[in-house]
Amino acid sequence: LIVTRVSAGPIDDLKPGLWLRVAGSALQSVAPTGTSANVMAPWSGGAFDTKRDQLIVWGGGHGDYSGNELYTFSLGSLKWTRVTSPSQPPAKDVPYAADGGPCSRHTYNYVQYMPAIDRFVSFGGAGFWQSGQTGTSATDAFDFESRKWSKLANVPDRAYGIGAFSAVDPVTGRAWQHGAGGKMLILAEYVPGTNTWVVHGGQWTEGENDFSYNLTAAIDTKRKLFVACGGGALWTWNIGASGTITGKKETSTGGDAIVKAASPGFEYHAKSDRFVAWSGGADVYTLNMDTKAWTRLAPAPENTVTPTPAAPNGTFGRFRYSPNKDVFVVVNSIGHDVYIYRLPSALAKP
Asked: Which of 127, 149, 309, 349 is the most buried (most CB within 10 A)?
């Protein structure tokens, strides 16, 4: 009996500690003719649809790009899809275009996929095309089945805007978001089952802490922490508590390169109980929340792939984890290929 092994695909064959370059996977191949690189380059984030196993990218805004089209990259087909076309004419300094589509905007880290309602969601908006000085508290949700946008409950005051950072708790299905780009901001919790928000602080809850727009957030499901990293800071909020929740500025060791990065890729990997961060190059960093120690993970010796440089303004949510494939996926520009990474089978313990 001769058994022939059939490859399940390049991702399934990806060995621990290696990067995969998906050759010929530049987003610009499905973009409208003449689309600017500013779909991603300015301050544009992304999300990950765990149901369809696809990375979602949506951005533009300010004086950078007027198109409000939505893109997805499937880990199944390893191809991009332009899900919607740009609104014509583009909306200028208002939340919605004439066809009802949300306007082009900087999306930072306030866009997420919510499994509980199977929607891609923009929790407010900021940096509207064309002036960039406009924003909204309106929450817009996209349904991939109907391919239509709808509105959810508005984000509470001081929890949205320029550089707001968010994350979805995979255990509770709820989303958490903190305002950024200034002082006297708050943390708020979105409850999808009732389409309501719970505010966890008032104007003076966190004093006059200045939350930059260089933070990317993720949730530690073991310790029930909302954690934000980037721009020289590491913050935690105890989301297991009720009522007022105050952020704590943490001190960590061994990870200056990633903590100081502008909005690095930042995800929690429950299997290893580590945060995983990336901001360029073939190395990734893991964070042990018990010791607050970072570990730099060089790729496996046989690795031959190095991702293209991170976008200067930040990676935000364009570095995401796929629970289905147990890999991380990142994209840095519409003209660059997509890269996929698998953690070492045995992580170095700090």
From this structure: 127
- pLDDT-above-90 percentage for the chain: 94
pTM: predicted TM-score of the whole model, two decimal places: 0.96
pLDDT band at 3 (very low <50, low <70, confident <90, very high): very low
The reported pLDDT for the residue numbered 9 is 86
CA atoms within 13 Å, Cβ hemisphere of 7: 6
Question: How long a stretch of residues is the chain?
Answer: 350
